[in-house]
Amino acid sequence: MGVGGEKFQLGTVGALSLSVVSSVSIVICNKALMSSLGFNFATTLTSWHLLVTFCSLHVALWMKFFEHKPFDSRTVMGFGVLNGISIGLLNLSLGFNSVGFYQMTKLAIIPCTVILETLFFRKKFSRSIQMSLSVLLLGVGVATVTDLQLNAVGSILSLLAIITTCIAQIMTNTIQKKFKVSSTQLLYQSCPYQSLTLFLIGPFLDCFLTNQNVFAFNYTSQVVFFIVLSCLISVSVNFSTFLVIGKTSPVTYQVLGHLKTCLVLTFGYVLLHDPFSWRNILGILIAVVGMVLYSYFCTVETQQKNAEVSPQQWKIVKGA
């Protein structure tokens, strides 16, 4: 039990670390691609990310790094299409809303996930966990939310984006457990459907939001270099996303996402000299306190559950 627990903890820490490093890296890369080079086709770029991820996993499968495990094709297709739609809706939400309202949309994903898991999966969140999540959301809100401009279309898109994102992330966790597939196996099978969904809607969505044609863009060697780099980093981002949700929970993944936001803000201030205020600093500090509390309470509750399970297993062994 002890060795297995240590391996699980090391695997979880590794997944969390990979997710943070790869996500922060791709944000920096995409910022250079979009802000400096003017390539603002986010949805189409995401479809390329998923296509490269699928090709990379196909090579890994050919080299026998993991085993292909087919399961319910309808579930895989529905999951892949839903993931693609949720990404498109998030991009649309950003296009129709102010940055501040978009940040509120991302913050709303955590409480929405908690509500859905409580209602449909009977999952219980202790008051300590709820309190730590509240502190985290307060900190991220203070650090990132500025203007809140509401409009009917933007609000509806944000609501749809929140719901689809929550359901997709909950499905990531439940599918892996229900069909006993690894994060790699699920990602490999769902990637083509995600990529195809975004590739079909991406050019139209990007053209609608930017008034530019992705296929008419001037692809200089520098632009191509950053696109290739972004696609390569995305392999780690996509893999670590499924890995983290599979090993922990959708809520923990969202908490990790807000940690990435704080790191990106800090990185932008320290290295890129982005505008920073006392409000950003205060918000990040509050968010870090919330993350530390969340990690602490999760660890304590996990240890308590393990302590309760061990005596029961010992009784079963003695009875046998």
Radius of gyration: 20 Å
Order of helices and strands: HHHHHHHHHH
Through-space gap between termini: 18 Å
Anisotropy-based shape = globular
How many β-strand stretches?
A: 0
Separate helix tally:
10
Strand content: under 5%
The share of residues in helices is: over 70%
Main sheet properties: none
Query: Mean pLDDT across all residues, rounded?
Result: 82
> Spans of 5+ residues with little confidence (pLDDT < 50)?
none
Structure overview:
The protein is mainly alpha-helical and 320 residues long. The mean pLDDT is 82. 38% of the residues are buried. It is globular, with a radius of gyration of 20 Å. Helices cover 83% and strands 0% of the residues. Helix 5 (127-144) runs antiparallel to helix 10 (278-319), helix 6 packs across helix 8 and helix 9 packs antiparallel against helix 10 (278-319). The chain is built from ten helices and no strands. Pfam families: TPT. The chain crosses the membrane at residues 12-33, 45-63, 75-94, 156-175, 196-217, 223-244, 278-297. InterPro entries: EmrE-like, Sugar_P_trans_dom, TPT_transporter.
For this entry, give a set of tags.
single chain, 320 residues, mainly alpha, 10 helices, globular, transmembrane helix
Question: Short summary of the structure?
Answer:
By secondary structure, the protein is mainly alpha-helical. The chain is built from ten helices and no strands.
